[in-house]
Amino acid sequence: MMFFRRHVQKTIPINNSTLSSSIPLSLDTSNIAEDERESAAENELSTTPTALSPIEKTTVFSNDIDSQTTTTSTIEHLAVKHPGLLRLFDSTVCTVSIIISYLFSSKEPIVQQFLGRKLFDYPQEELDFYLPQLINMYIHIQSISTVIHEYITTRCSQSVEFSLQCAWLLDAYIADQMKVAKPNAAVRLLFDILYEKYKPKITYNPTTINNSSNNHHRLDEEENENVNSQEDEMKAERALSQDNLMLQISRKKGHQKSRSDVSGLMLPRNKRSLPIMNGEASKQHRRQPRLCLGDLNSGRAFDNNCMCFENVNGFRRRECTCNAPKLAPVREFMTALINIGKKLPHVPTKEKKTQNLIGEMKRMNMNLPARVWIPFYKFPHHVVRIAYTESTVLNSRDRAPYIVYIEIVLCDNIFASPLPMKQNDSKLRSTRSEENLTHHINNHQIPSTSGLIGSYLNCETQSLDSELIDSYRSFVNSEDADIWSTSDDVTGDDAQLSHQSVPRRNGLIGYRSNHAMNINPETQSIRSTESHLSQQEIMPSDIRKRLTEVKTTGPILFERDPDDPSAAALKEPWDKKEQRIRLASPYGHLRNWRLVAAIVKCGDDLRHELLAYQFMVRLKEIWLCEHVPVFVRPINILVLSNNSGLIEPILNAVSLHQIKKNSKLSLRNYFLREFGTERSEQFLTSVRNFVQSCAAYSIICYLLQVKDRHNGNILLDDEGHVIHIDFGYMLSATPKNLGFESSPFKITQEFVDIMGGLQSDMYGYYKILILQGLLAARKHMDKLMPIVEIMQHGSQLNCFSKGNVTLGLRERFHLNMTDEQLEFNVEKMVESSLNSLTTRVYDTFQYYTNGISK
Q: Which residues form the PIK helical domain (predicted)?
C-alpha cells in the first residue's frame, strides 16, 4: 500500500507537458510490456532514479490521448475561425521564421498552442538559431511560455548541448528581470535544467563491438615495437612507484599491508570499477573516485565520474545509466576560463598579464584531456590540451580579453568515444637528427594541415576513434635506432626542418622532391646541365640583391610588442601556427588532432554581439539567395552570462590599428606590399574582396546603426576582406552617450584610395553593391525584423534603451522609396559618410585617449 501511495504522490504534481516529452505517438502493447520489464529490473537494481512505474506509464499514456484530442480540437477550431492561417501553417512555404513571427505577434491562445506544437515539425538546427528569441518570449510572455515549455523540456531531455545553451541564455536574460520583478517560471526552468530534472538521455550505437580500431589507445602497427618498449618502461616505473607507495603506507600505518590492498589505487580508470576482490575489499574497489568538479588542483576538475561507456573486457554499454552530472564538466570548463579573465584586469602590465595567463592555462592542462568541448564548434570533439604558451591578452584598455588556442581531437560521440591517454608536456619528444632527416623526407610525404572545418568535413568520419595516427607520425618513426635523438622541447626552428633543406653534411647538399631527385641522366639535356652548374656560381652582389627584394616584397610579419602582444600572434598565418603547435604537442601524432581558438571576454555584454550575429547570418542568406556578390563574415558568439562569454576569432586577420602601428604604411601601400603590384592578379583580387566586404558592412552598420567604428574594431584578413567586430554599441547605444558618430557608416579616404579613387570603377562598383544589397534586404525585410522585435520585448539591453528602436530600423529599409529614389539616397549616404566630420573627430578622440591609430 505504501508503494502504491508513494507512486501516486510522485505522479500527481508532474506537469502534463513534462510527461508528454517522453510520450510515444502510438500505442504498442509489446513495447509497453517490454518497458515495464525493463523498469522493474532497473528499480530492483537501483541503477536509475527516473524509471516509471506501471501506474505512471498509464498516466503518461492517458495524457498522450488527451494531448492528441487537444491537438485535433485546436485544428478544428483553426479550420473554422482562421482557415487562411491553417493553410499557411500547413503549406511548404511556411518557414521557421514565419512560425516564430506569428507565435510572437498572435494574441489568441488557440493559435499559440497550435504553433507551440508545430515547433516539433521543423529541423532542430533551424529552431536552434532562434533559441534566444524563444528564451526571451519564455521569460517575458507567460502565454507563450506555457505553449513552448513542452518543446524546450523535450529538447533538454534529448541533448546536453541544448540544455547548456538554454541554461546559459536563461541565466543571461533573467539577470535583468531579477532586478525589477520576482522569479517566475523561467527561473524554475533554469534550476530544473541545472539540477538536471530533464536529464538528457545519452546512448551509443557502435558500428562494431570489440573492435580494436575503435580504441584511442591503439597505435599504428609500424609503431608497435617502439610503443611496446615505452609501455614496458612505464609499467616498470609504475610498479616501482607502487612499491614505494606501499612502503610509505606501511611505515605511516605501523603495520604491513599486502600489495593487493593498495594496488587498486594504481589501476587504470577503466579498471577501477571492476570487482577484483571479495567482501569488503570488493566494495572498496567498486567505489568511484571522489567527485572533484571545479577543483583545478585535483587533476579531475572536468570529470563527472561517468564510466558507463568504458571498455570492459571488450564490451561497452549502449546507454548511460548512472547519475553523474552531464552538464557540469562543460560548465566548469567555461567557468574556469571566465574566472581567469576576471583576474587579469587586476594585473598591472600586459606583459605580466600574459605571463599570468600562461600560468593559469598550464594549471588547466593538469585536468585535460576531458569530455569537454567548445560549443560554437558544431563538430563533436574532445579538448585534450591548451597550447598555453600561445595564449595572449588582447588589446583593450579597461578589460583583459584573451585568446586561447585549444587542441582537440575529433570523435564520433562526445560521451562514449574514449579519451586519448594523458601525456605530460615534460615528456621527452623524439626528433630526427639532421643526418638522417634527408633520407626520410625523400621517402615520406608530410601532410599539410588544412582548414579546421574543411578538414573535418573532408575526413572520413565513419570511425574517427580509429583515426588517431597521423601520417606525420609514421614519417618520424624509423626502424633504425641510430637516427633518433631526444630533446626537451621542439622549437619553431626544429619545426621548420621538415620543410627546409638540410645544410651540407656528410656530403649532402640538401634534398629535393622525389620527381626532382629521380631525373634520368640520359634524358637530361646539356642546356639543363649548364644551367644547373651556373646556379652554383652565385655572386655576393646577387645575394644582397635578393635579400633586399625579400625585405621589400611579401607579407609583413609583425614583431612582438610588449604593449600589444596579440599583434604578432594574430598576424602569423594559421596553417603555420597550427603546424608549429602540432609538432610541439604530445597529442600532435593523432590523426584527428585539430587546433581551434576562442576569445574569452569578461565584463562585456555579449548579448548585443549575439543579436548582431543573428542579423548578419540572415542577411548573408538573403544576399546569397538574391545573388548579390558581397562578403560578410558572421562571428559565432557563446553567451555565458550577462557579462561574459566566448567569441570565435577571425583567423588570419589583424586590425587596421595593428597594421598601421606595426607596418608604418598607409593602407594602400600595405596592400601593395602584401598582395603585389597594381596589375598583379592577387592585388586585383584583394581589391575586389575589399570592395565587396566594405559594401556589406556599410549596409549592416547603416541598418543596425553600429557605432564605435574605430580602426581597432575593423579587421583586414589575408585575402583583403574587411571584417567588422565588436557590436556592443548599436541601434540606440553609443559610446559614453556622446553621439560622435552621426554618419550612416564608416568610409574614409584611405578606403577610397584602395579602390582606386573617386573616379575609379571599383568605387562605382562599391556604390552599386550597396544599392543591390539594400534592395535585397528590403525585399526580405520580414525575415530580419522579427529577430530584433522579439528581443526588444521586455529587454533591458542598452541597445533598446531609447524608445522603439524597431520603428527606426523599419524606416531604414525605405519601403516608401522607388528603386531610383533609393539609388539617389545611396549616393547621398556614401558622400555624407566620406566627408563626415564626426568620423574624423571620433578617430582623433580614440587616438589621444586609447592610442588607436587614425
A: 1-201
Q: Which helix (H) or strand (E) holds 393?
A: strand 392-393
C-alpha cell of residue 849: 585617449
**Degrees (nearest 5) of the Cα angle 739, 721, 814?**
50
* Residue 313 banded pLDDT, cuts 50, 70, 90: low
Orientation angle between helical segments 681-704 and 667-675, nearest 10 degrees: 140
pLDDT digits (tens, 9 = 90+) for 659-715: 998 888 999 999 999 999 999 999 999 999 999 999 999 999 999 999 989 999 999
The reply to whether 678 and 736 lie within a common domain is yes
Q: Mapped to the 3 state alphabet, what secondary structure does 464-530 carry?
A: HHHCCCCHHHHHHCCCCHHHEEEECCCCHHHHHHHCCCCCCECCECCCCCHHHHCCCCCCCCHHHHH
Determine the 3-state secondary structure of 82 from DSSP: coil
Whether residue 299 is found in the same domain as residue 415: yes
Q: Count other Cβ atoms within 10 Å, centred on residue 403.
A: 19
- Better pLDDT: 796 or 365: 365
Measured between alpha carbons, how far is residue 729 from residues 42, 605, 608, 737 in Å? 55, 10, 8, 10
Give CA–CA dist 303/750, Å, rounded.
53
Q: Give the count of alpha carbons within 13 A of 354, CB side only.
A: 18
How far is it, in rounded angstroms, from Cα 319 to Cα 377?
A: 25
Cα torsion 362, 367, 369, 374 to 10°: value is: -80
Angle between helices 781-792 and 131-140 (to 10 degrees): 40
The set of cell numbers assigned to 9 is: 504522490
Mean pLDDT score of the chain: 74
Name the grid cell of 565: 602582444
Instruction: Return the axis-axis angle of helices 607-625 and 131-140, rounded to nearest 10°.
Output: 130
Residue ranges making up the domain that contains 77: 69-195
Same domain, yes or no, for 164 and 82?
Answer: yes
Specify the 3-state DSSP secondary structure of 290.
coil
Strands 392-393 and 402-410: antiparallel
Q: Say yes or no: 590 and 610 in one domain.
A: no
Distance CA 831, CA 809 (A): 21
CB neighbourhood size of 177 (10 A): 18
**The last residue of a domain, from among 575, 601, 627:** 601
H-helix or E-strand containing 46?
A: none
**pLDDT of res. 802:** 81
Extract the C-alpha cell encoding 420.
Answer: 586519448
Taking alpha carbons only, the member of 115, 123, 129, 119 closest to residue 153 is 119
Cα–Cα distance list, 143 to 116, 146, 832 (Å): 11, 5, 47
In a domain, residue 492? The reply is no
Q: What is the DSSP string of 606-627?
A: THHHHHHHHHHHHHHHHHHHTT
Is residue 169 in a domain?
A: yes
Report pLDDT digits (tens) over 755-789: 999 999 999 999 999 999 999 999 999 999 999 99
Instruction: Kindly tell me if the per-residue pLDDT of 102 is higher than 80.
Output: yes
Question: Which of 601, 632, 664 is the last residue in one of the domains?
Answer: 601
Number of domains in the chain: 3
Secondary-structure breakdown of the chain: helix, strand, coil percentages, each rounded to the nearest 5: 55, 5, 40
Q: What is the amino acid identity at position 442? A: N
Examine the domain organization and report whether 696 and 582 are in the same domain.
no
**Does pLDDT of 13 surpass 50?**
no
- Rounded to whole angstroms, the Cα distance separating 854 from 852 reads 6
The model carries a pTM of 0.73
The CA distances from residue 357 to 193, 329, 344, 571, 598, in Å, are 32, 21, 7, 20, 14
Q: Does 425 have pLDDT greater than 80?
A: no
Amino acid at 70: T
Same domain, 84 and 156: yes
Long-range contacts of 310-317 (CB under 8 A, 24+ apart): 310/269, 310/270, 310/273, 311/215, 311/270, 311/418, 312/270, 312/274, 314/209, 314/210, 315/209, 315/210, 316/204, 316/206, 316/209, 316/416, 317/204
